[in-house]
């Protein structure tokens, strides 16, 4: 089986974007989760989870967050 680990950015740090970014990062891809609100991204970075949408799902260590 041929495995490709891609670098990608998920635009939107809401419920869907967060879930997609976590899934991709867990599967070995280099992922940046981008959100338009710097304060929200700072909170996500500090908490290492999205308390508003997926409070029980921690971010993989490899998941990067940017605004």
From TrEMBL:
<dbReference type="GO" id="GO:0016616">
    <property type="term" value="F:oxidoreductase activity, acting on the CH-OH group of donors, NAD or NADP as acceptor"/>
</dbReference>
<protein>
    <submittedName>
        <fullName>Glycerol-3-phosphate dehydrogenase</fullName>
    </submittedName>
</protein>
<dbReference type="Pfam" id="PF01210">
    <property type="entry name" value="NAD_Gly3P_dh_N"/>
</dbReference>
<dbReference type="InterPro" id="IPR011128">
    <property type="entry name" value="G3P_DH_NAD-dep_N"/>
</dbReference>
<feature type="domain" description="Glycerol-3-phosphate dehydrogenase NAD-dependent N-terminal">
    <location>
        <begin position="8"/>
        <end position="65"/>
    </location>
</feature>
<dbReference type="GO" id="GO:0051287">
    <property type="term" value="F:NAD binding"/>
</dbReference>
<dbReference type="InterPro" id="IPR036291">
    <property type="entry name" value="NAD(P)-bd_dom_sf"/>
</dbReference>
<dbReference type="GO" id="GO:0046168">
    <property type="term" value="P:glycerol-3-phosphate catabolic process"/>
</dbReference>
């Amino acid at each position: 089986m041929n495995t490709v680990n891609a670098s990608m950015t998920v635009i939107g740090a809401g419920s869907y974007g967060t879930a997609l970014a976590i899934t991709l990062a867990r599967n070995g891809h280099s992922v940046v989760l981008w959100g338009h609100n710097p304060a929200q991204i700072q909170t996500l970075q500090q908490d290492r989870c999205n308390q508003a949408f997926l409070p029980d799902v921690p971010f993989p260590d490899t998941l990067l967050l940017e605004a």
